[in-house]
């Protein structure tokens, strides 16, 4: 099947559920495997806009409180919101590689094996009694002469989460708390993870999938070969993966997405949804902070914040600008 870029983008829009769905927040995350979560308020919004009508940010927080959604570092050394089952499966494939890749950083921070052992033991014992916030965790280590300055505390939490010791779970006010990750028989088949990634973001390239998981392309392609309903299509002449038989929907109009959304960050190649000028507006100076975006038929045309348009890129007509204003006024998730 040959698809134009416009057709592929409209299929992606439907796959992302950016028009909403009939799913609960936990079902949205289970379907999409993992959502970029380094900015906590942003990922709550990313999940809410994909959920059933009327879903609030409190509904998403409640799913975290019930343990249906968790937040950790399953891949790429980046925080994601995912499910407990997906977290266990992904860490099975990624944790060893990630811990090897950060060995030099641990050495630079002075986090030797003895320090890691003490930090692990202290946190394991403390979490048997209650959940801990980040500040409480750092205070625990500091009280036992384990330094947490200069990024050491963050790296300790990251390292122990990679080991599968704990994850970010229920909320205490605006903050998440660390809770133990229960031992579980993790499914080891990567194919369902690849399928969910493609289902919630396709069409996309095999290189996108390998980049997203930070796994070898050979492993990703081998897993994809076990997915019965994965199809290969062509997008502007290049091979891409989809799930099932695609039916191209109509244009999607104006849509607002939060910062750090998978619409932008879910791909190694973002050219289908944003021009270089738009990417510069979304990620000014490559500073690592992805701003909320305004989409028109899936194409990023500007940025917004707090109900206000902050930048427009390229030409937009009066009708589109009016539609953007209506979307900003109607945004329900502040």
Strand-pairing-aware structural class: alpha+beta
- Write out the strand line-up for the largest beta sheet, numbering strands in chain order: 9-10-11-12
Sheet bearing the most strands, described?
A: 4 strands, antiparallel
Number of extended strands: 12
The number of distinct structural domains comes to 2
Distance from first to last alpha carbon: 41 Å
Rounded radius of gyration (Å): 21 Å
How much beta, percentage-wise?
A: 15-25%
Low-confidence stretches: none
Mean pLDDT: 96
**SSE pattern:** EHHEHHEEHHHHHEEHHHEEEHHEEEH
What level of helicity do the residues show?
40-55%
Report the principal-axis shape.
globular
Count of helical regions: 15
Comma- or semicolon-separated keywords:
334 residues; alpha+beta; 2 domains; 4-stranded antiparallel sheet; 3-stranded mixed sheet; 12 strands; 45% helix
In short:
The chain has helices at 5-16, 25-32, 40-49, 57-65, 84-101, 103-109, 113-127, 134-143, 152-162, 191-199, 206-213, 217-224, 262-265, 276-282, 318-330, and strands spanning 2-3, 34-36, 70-75, 78-82, 166-172, 175-180, 230-235, 238-243, 254-257, 293-296, 299-305, 308-312.
